[in-house]
Amino acid sequence: MKTFKDKVLNIVSNIPKGKTITYKEVAILAGSPKAYRAVGNIMSKNFDPNIPCHRVIRSDGKVGKYNRGDKRKEEILIREGAIIAKN
Question: Which of these is catalytic: 39, 53, 57, 77?
Fold first, then answer.
């Protein structure tokens, strides 16, 4: 049986380049719609380069936090062609 963390990491690992998904959408897809803060917590501890946690953003379209620096997250998303709101 997959844990919530396993589900989250699997969902995030499948976000295509140039696309984003919100923390809340990840929580819904993982089966726990109210666990969007838990999704953020999982993402903050992710350092696996195969899991593009930078593609998970806030529901208001802003990039939110990133464990390698918020500015870097924004730069990566822009380079990938994602549309983001300015913080």
Answer: 53
Domain boundaries of the chain, sorted by first residue: 4-80
3-state secondary structure of 22: strand
CATH class of 4-80: mainly alpha
Candidates 9, 13, 8, 47; CA nearest to 28 is 8
- Residues 13-63 have pLDDT tens digits of 999 999 999 999 999 999 999 999 999 999 999 999 999 999 999 999 999
The beta-strand segments (E) located in 1-87 are 21-22, 56-57
Task: Tell me, yes or no, if 12 is annotated catalytic.
Answer: no
Residue 61 is encoded by which pair of tokens?
A: 């379209």
Which residues share a beta bridge with 61? none
Instruction: Note the pTM of the prediction, 2 decimals.
Output: 0.93
